[in-house]
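Need NNP family nitrate/nitrite transporter-like MFS transporter's 3D structure for a figure. Predict it.
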Amino acid sequence: MTTSESSKANHQSSSYLPEWTPNDPVFWEREGKARAWKTLWVTTFGLTLAFAVWFMVSAIVVRLNDIGFNLSKDQLFWLTAMPGLAAGLTRLRHMFLVPTYGSRTTLTVSTLGLLIPAVGWGLAVQNPETPFWVLLSLAFLAGMGGGNFSSFMPSTSLFFPKKMQGAALGIQAGIGNFGVSLVQFLTPWVVGVNLFWFLGSQSEQWVFAGKTSTIWLQNASWVYIPWLIAAAALSWLLIRSVPIKANMKEQLAIFGDKHTWIMTSIYMMTFGAFSGLAAAFPLLIKTLYGGFENAPLPLKFAFLGPLIGSAVRVLFGLIADKTGGAILTSISAVGMGLSAIAVTFYVTPTDLTTFPLFVGTMLAIFFFSGIGNAATFRQMPIIFNPPYSSGVIGWTAAIAAFGPFIVSMLISFNLAASGNVKGFFYGLAVFCVLNLGLNWYFYGRRGAEKPS
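Structure prediction for NNP family nitrate/nitrite transporter-like MFS transporter:
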């Protein structure tokens, strides 16, 4: 063996596990279970932070004009949409990284990359003269956090036996999704304290309900910096890669399977709607109900949507392993469609009396989307075999990550065209009916082609 070959072999032995057969009960009990669960908790910590970085822009934009920026409603929706565009595009690349470079390298480097938008947003918001194109670029970079999902989830699917993948992926995706709720819940608190006084952080004044308050909006992004560093270190030190290798040509074989496209549509209904509405919810509250006296603070209510959707996803990930995913996906489609119709009665308010009903029907959409998110991640490992199952998970997640971009743009278009967002929610209901039919015919009915 040459020196270069020896070096390569040593590198592989240190980064890759020599053996990994989680579907073998003896191997699983001997060493697989402990390593799989340890890996899951490390990567779930990193994924939660990735989601927080992805959605921190949605929490920041509702405050920009309060501290001296002068952005139009259209510009604010573009800032909310841009992370979704970036997440979808970067997920298309991430879906190929784990089989090519392994979990250890991919997850460590992708976590470190999130330091760029975390630092950048903290600097940008301290100067109201920051050009819009800079804010737009930083919003795009924040979307890299959403891109990480298509590395983290396929990686996790490789560590667990098939019978446990619904639970494992449900736990990781559900807790990871808490990052959305975390950023919208945490932001109002952290911006009220001068956490980074040692950096000479600048404060801004804002007025709400006749009261003047001081905020440090840079905290909304800087608060994640030390945790991102910790997550990257843990990934490098504790994660090893599963010895499943596939080049890009082999992975592209998934696109010849019609079930890849069917599951893409179904997952777009569940996670696409979840992520899109989670990003748009704060600005939607401000747009629809912010003009009334004593208007509600958007972030006081917006975090409830992703919180409910994430919690439901964890719970139903466990349930899906026992019931199967197809029946739960059907329940999700019906519930989301009916809830979307219900929302339309409360999006043209004349006062604040309908606000609780608006929030309640929106939360119903998040609830049923959480059921569907859990169910689809039970279905995909059953419908597809590895390594193609991880490729499909990565691909569907990539397309659904465009949710914030698509939803924000559609809402903005509807507002510009008709002055309300009823058309958007009617369209969502129709999309749910379409996917209900696809899921029932191919996966849920008696004699279905791929019962799951």
